[in-house]
Amino acid sequence: MEIVYVYTKIRSEFGRQCNFSDRPAELHVDIIPDPILAEQFIEKNPVDIVVQVSNDMSEHEINTERFETETRGINHVEGGWPRDINPNDLEHTIRYRKKVEKDENYVYTLMQLGGLMEHCIKQNNAINIYEEYFEDQEETMERSEEPPSAKTINVFRDPNVIARTVSHLSWHPDQGRKLAISYCCQEFQKAAQMKNESYIWDMENLTTHEMVIKPVSPLMCLEYNPKDSHILAGGCYNGQIGYWDTRKGGQAVEMPAIEVGHRDPVYKIIWLQSKTGTDCFSTSTDGQVLWWDIRKMSEPVERLILDITKKDNPDIAYGGVSLEFEPTMPTKFMVGTEQGAIILGNRKGKLPAEKIVSTFTGHHGPVYALQRNPFYPKNFLTVGDWTARIWSEDLRDTSIIWTKYHMSNLTDGCWSPIRPFVFFTTKMDGTVDIWDLSFKHSDATLSIKVCDEALYSLRIQDNGRFLVCGSHLGKTTLLEFSSGFYTYQKNEKSLANAMFERETKREKILEARQREMRVKERAKSEQGKVVDQKVEDEEDTVEYKIAQAERAFFETIEQEKDRFKLEEPVDYRDTMSEEDDEVDDF
């Protein structure tokens, strides 16, 4: 027999708190004063002592490094095999499968698992628990509520005492952690007094430059190698080409002799998409395009004279100011000239006549910027004189979209790498314009007054969030845009494609119409029917049709007025005399 006794205790007795009560003071120790210590007492009058109860603390600030995260996955090809089975041995695995299939519980287990899987599949088909509902409406609401804006993050100033113009900007290919800025005074009279150094800045340390690039002549352009971030290629004011390795210091690793390079300043240099990552090409106002391999810089690999007559005559060649190369089109390249023409080239051609494919003409001055749309390489942006233009390779005579003529000259421009509708331009009045073609075409979506002097260069980061622009007095301003400019919108790519196709089709129709009218005029002039030709041309013009429609409209109105007068009843009260009115009043 089991005897159980339960001990009970009141819950309030557990963890009983201390009870305090008041009581009079008690004397426990009485220490008599020591007369020896009393002799050492020194009286001070007055005595000021500052007492602070809290602990003394110091404050300091530090900029921590960014924590970079990455996502990794594991692909389990084989798993669940016993230890004595080698999964790489085909015979072992086949023998083990046959053994399992002969087991009595195999069919029962498979049917049970199949029922569970069927239930889960039906649930997934019924509802997607990972689906985000009303996602489009929330994004649209956020974009509409947030106005377009930009703020200045930092200003990089030229360390030189005499300020120089920021000639070119280049972001580091690895998430834009660094920025290479080349400085060059483009005024010939002042160029001799300027220093040659250019600088590389670290975005984590914005107070001072990280490295000094020391060329033999001021750099007009300086570009990072997209495959090797330690290599930079640059073009000098005296026409020389060189490349630098940041691991070996600020001096050029190799620079060819001046007689084998350009004869004028090198305005643009671009790295080519190749297996080795060592190929690049450059252009200058001397009318040449030179291809280089940095492994052998003694002479250019290839040379092209920008002669649109395709006679390879350097005396009538157009001077190159800007270059464009799209990696998805490795055989094509484009050159913007100081005469306002854009030359489309083909690297596959062996003869000069085959290398120059076609020419686009639309600017009154030098084409300072030339870039293909990252999403639609067939369409490209050009900046020159007082306007920016968007072209299509299918049209030669005219652009499909262009901005209005500004009061100040445009100096540079580029596309957004995130949104196909957005591009940026700089002007001589120190303003940066951000254009969003999905919003409006006539005016810029946002205009920012960066500085009082002229802006000559700009470059957008790969994430589309940060933009740098360089001024005439050596100031490089770092801007950060609001999320609307670098957030990809839904269906934006298809809308941009539809807009470019629509504008291209419209220009083709207008060109065909003009061509048709010219053919008609030529045929009529050959027949000698001058009078009939003028009448027919007048009838075909839009003004004549508008005048004819207005004439018919006003004739119809006059006819309706006459008909209304005939049908209107006579009001005899209007014919009453004044005497009758007086009598009626009386």
- Identify the CATH homologous superfamily of the domain at 146-491: YVTN repeat-like/Quinoprotein amine dehydrogenase
Return residue spans where pLDDT drops below 50 for at least 5 consecutive residues.
138-144, 570-586
Number of strands: 27
CATH architecture of the domain at 146-491: 7 Propeller
The pLDDT mean sits at 83
Q: For the record, what CATH class of the domain at 146-491 applies?
A: Mainly Beta
Helix content: 10-25%
What does this entry look like structurally?
The protein is an alpha+beta fold. Among the domains are: 146-491, 7 Propeller (Methylamine Dehydrogenase, Chain H); 529-565. It is built from ten helices and 27 strands. The chain has helices spanning 35-39, 90-101, 105-126, 135-145, 188-191, 352-355, 492-527, 530-540, 542-567, 578-585, and strands at residues 150-157, 166-171, 178-183, 198-202, 211-213, 219-224, 231-236, 241-245, 266-271, 279-284, 288-293, 302-305, 320-324, 332-337, 341-346, 356-361, 367-372, 379-384, 387-392, 401-402, 410-415, 422-427, 431-436, 446-449, 455-460, 466-471, 475-481. The strands form seven sheets. The chain has a four-stranded antiparallel sheet, with no helix packed on it. Strands 2-3-4-5 form a four-stranded antiparallel sheet, with no helix packed on it. It has a four-stranded antiparallel sheet with strand order 9-10-11-12, with no helix packed on it. It is extended and about 135 Å long.
